[in-house]
Amino acid sequence: MESGLSNLLSVSIDFGTSHLLFPTIIHWIMAGLFLxxxxxxxxxxxxxxxxxxxxxxxxxxxxxxxxxxxTLVLIVAYFYLMDVVGNLFPYTGYGFLxxxxxxxxxMSLMYMHEWTKKAVIIAVINxxxxxxxxxxxxxxxxxxxxx
Amino acid sequence: xxxxxxxxxxFFLLAGFGALIGIIFGAIPxxxxxxxxxxxxxxxxxxxxxxxxxxLLGLYVGGISGGMVPxxxxxxxxxPSSITTTFDGYPMARKGEGEKALRVCVxxxxxxxxxxxxxxxxxxxxxxxxSIKFSYVEKFLIILLALSVIASLSSSMLVxxxxxxxxxxxxxxxxxxxxxxxxxxxxxxxxxxxxxxxEGFSLLPVLIGIFxxxxxxxxxxKGVKSELSHERVKFGKGSGFSLGLFKGRLTNxxxxxxxxxxxxxxxGVGGSAASVLAYTQEKNLARDSSQMGKGAxxxxxxxxxxxxxxxxxxxxxxxxxxxxxDSTTAVLIGAFTLQGIQVGPLFIPENxxxxxxxxxALVFANVVMFFLMFFAxxxxxxxxxxxxxxxxxxxxxMCVVGAYAINYGIMFDVWTLLIFGILGYxxxxxxxxxxxxxxxxxxxxxxxxxxVKSLESFGTLSIFFxxxxxxxxxxxxxxxxxxxxxxxxxxNRKRDREEQIG
Amino acid sequence: MTLSKKTLAxxxxxxxxxxxxxxxxxxxxxxxxxxxxxxVVIGSTSTGGDTYQNSSIVVDKLAEHLDLNxxxxxxxASSAFRTLDRDARGNTLMIFHDQSYLGHLYGVEGYENIxxxxxxxxxxxxxxxxAYLVPKDSPYETLDEVIxxxxxxxxxxxxxxxxxxxxIGFSALKNAVSIEHPGQEDNLVAVNTGSQSDxxxxxxxxxxxxxxxxxxxxxxxxxxxxxxxxxxxFVWLTARQDTIEQAPEExxxxxxxxxxxxxxxxxxxxxxxxxxxxxxxxxxxxLYNKDMDPGIVEQIDEALTEIYEEGEIQExxxxxxxxxxxxxxxxASEYLNEKMSRYEExxxxxx
Lengths: 147, 502, 351
Hints:
The complex is a heterotrimer of chains A (about 150), B (about 500) and C (about 350).
Chain A: H1 2-9, H2 21-50, H3 65-88, H4 94-111, H5 117-141
Chain B: H1 9-27, H2 33-47, H3 49-66, H4 68-74, H5 83-94, H6 98-131, H7 136-147, H8 149-153, H9 157-172, E1 174-175, E2 186-187, H10 194-197, H11 203-221, H12 250-265, H13 272-285, H14 297-321, H15 327-338, H16 347-350, H17 352-380, H18 388-406, H19 411-429, H20 434-458, H21 463-466, H22 469-501
Antiparallel strand pairs in B: 1-2
Helix pairs in contact in B: 1-2, 1-3, 1-17, 2-3, 2-15, 3-14, 3-15, 3-17, 4-5, 4-6, 5-6, 5-14, 6-12, 6-14, 6-17, 7-13, 7-20, 7-22, 9-20, 11-18, 11-19, 11-20, 12-13, 12-14, 13-14, 18-19
Chain C: H1 5-27, E1 37-42, H2 50-66, E2 69-73, H3 77-86, E3 92-96, H4 99-105, H5 114-117, E4 118-127, E5 130-135, H6 143-151, E6 156-160, H7 165-180, E7 188-192, H8 196-204, E8 210-214, H9 215-218, E9 232-237, H10 241-245, H11 257-261, E10 282-289, H12 294-310, H13 312-319, E11 323-327, H14 329-349
Parallel strand pairs in C: 1-2, 1-3, 6-7, 6-8
Antiparallel strand pairs in C: 3-10, 4-10, 4-11, 5-8, 5-9
């Protein structure tokens, strides 16, 4: 009996496939939990949606589409251009510096609700000073590699 | 006391200056203590060993402490180990108690730092001998214990665990790293991802993406209302802070400090696990932990005293085994090798002067950190007064710098920010929880290595129960933690039901 | 007062445009020379390790000599190769050691044949510290006893990190057993482990009988009292005898050069057949993008030749327990290629 138990508990691991052992365990746990959640949470929730008591997340909610998608597009453009521009001046951090400035400015303006002269001037100054300072201290003083 | 003659004004100035720069690095989202130490490492060559160490230890202490600032005020952990600080710090900041929260954090930090320094000084070689009693099996159980917090962290236990498991899954993407003893093969990804994801997602970009970028996306969705950054934080006399907050919290403070020191000294477990474990234990052991996660100072005390206690703890294996206890001490080891000094089991007896010098720097840096932070808090807390349209672009920019710089310049880490920003947004939208997910992510890959390696070495599952008395104790703690979570969840459900009826 | 959003958005994109044109101007400069900021990526992620230390010694000298901004970035092997792949302009260089081709020989994912895919640059130094250790109270006094014991059918477990520098000594040992005691080589078992701390831990736990380590990381452990659980003893340094002979006389820590010489050939003999003894020196060398201008290869060769003639760099390297070992690119490439084929044989033999 005892040997039966220790046989049950003994495992031999093939080093060549040992990278799959833990992920497999996690997959099973994840699948099990997902099923339970599906039954206890998702199905009742969808039923409530159908009855009109609840709304679906994201699609059923009010959203400031201009700012939300604007943010996404802006971040993608920022990351992409930073790499492109940075490649023109290898390892100087100029890619970061020159692309951060318009990014900070455009994002500021996009989030600003009332475009007063004062607020815009502050945003412009910020867009020049903040990336400039970050670049100078980190890339120049501390010689951190920046895009 | 020969070493006293080695102390000069420059030494103290460097330690203090290090603490200041460290705080600034820690306080900027995306910049970490590790980075601060790494960028200043080349300077130490010119400074000489003792002055160099003063600077680096200052940076280390300052950097770890500075992480509390964005954690409390912006809900972005400044360093990975301040993640549990966000759980209670941010809710407090939203209630207008940001300044109070920060003061609690600073005091907890300095006490944690000093306790661990004392432990380091008095018991380093002895504790190093104790720490090598922890093999793969015991380390796996420690990780499991830390993971058990995810069950009690969220309002629904099921959702919390599920989120945590997703986090573990995400951490497994990439190769089963050879440097951890794996076979270097990749899994959970398609071929086209291999050039980018060979080593998986890296922790810091994931962390600041999921906390920082997703917060900004959630705000953008709501239109970034023109109100000030958060509900106003009260200033001046009304900070509401008094030492009375620490009344009855002494056990928590001391316990968390010891947990931090202890976790710090286990090589390979290190870093973020310390504050998570301290937070778990406070939640399990405190008489009343119902407010934790909703803005309870006791959560801050546990988290911050543990993460500062990490500093002394992580130095124990470094100085008495030659093995770094966390990522920052891994960089610190370079300061010694650059000067041609070997760290190992004989370091302390053979370099007594350097050892005393380091202790002095560590204690002094903690004191400087305390005064700098405690009196600057009033001004630091004003960061939330900055309008969002100015603050957010800067946060994104600094997150980019941090993500890019953490692995010394990798562009994919910047894209990771965006990927996890969007993921974090979706997760919160569908009702999953970020905190357990990120804890799962932090601990997942270590759990894998220790689990698989234990089985490889011993070939039987029973080893997890029979390896050593330490393993048995750890199991008892895990069981207690799980039982506690279940009890809590039942109690909550009962209360909810009563409220619904009432 | 409000401003038009369009104007400002336009202003932003104009700035991007402007910076782009500005950039194009700078990227064009004279050919065949290093220019601008140079980044040297290394195959290790650690800034406390030997690769970083050695690279920063060399790169600092080179930067000074060429009057350029050069910086060492510890990005790790996979990222370093990828970064190097993308930049043929010479702004990215790489420094790594024998792992770069051993990884390929052992079939580790992410490693390709560097002799085909890259240009091999000059070698700069050797880390002579590659070592194997046993517990101080081990029954095995010497490596010969280990080989004999394995030949007698005893199982000896060795903790290594698979797929590279840490494994090559183990493979050679296994090969030696199969030559001297055919059929017994499977008694030498590799226990795949990660970092140095993991390997040490395996030894403390009695999970292995021997570990791979280094003089630098383990020297202090060899000086602990025998009753200390952590005490270890060197049994083998894989370096060549004349490599160790070039080390400073005082050796490392409190272990002198003379003591270290006890653990290298010919005192320790790991046969490769035909009276040949296996040795392994961990050598650091440059790797370049295949399409990089040959003028730059020459420029770096020349600069390093001059630096090594000055003789200062050798002192710095020796102080950090590196053995200076400069070979210009052509020589280095041929030498390393030959070195690889020798190890390839061993790995094939024991497959």
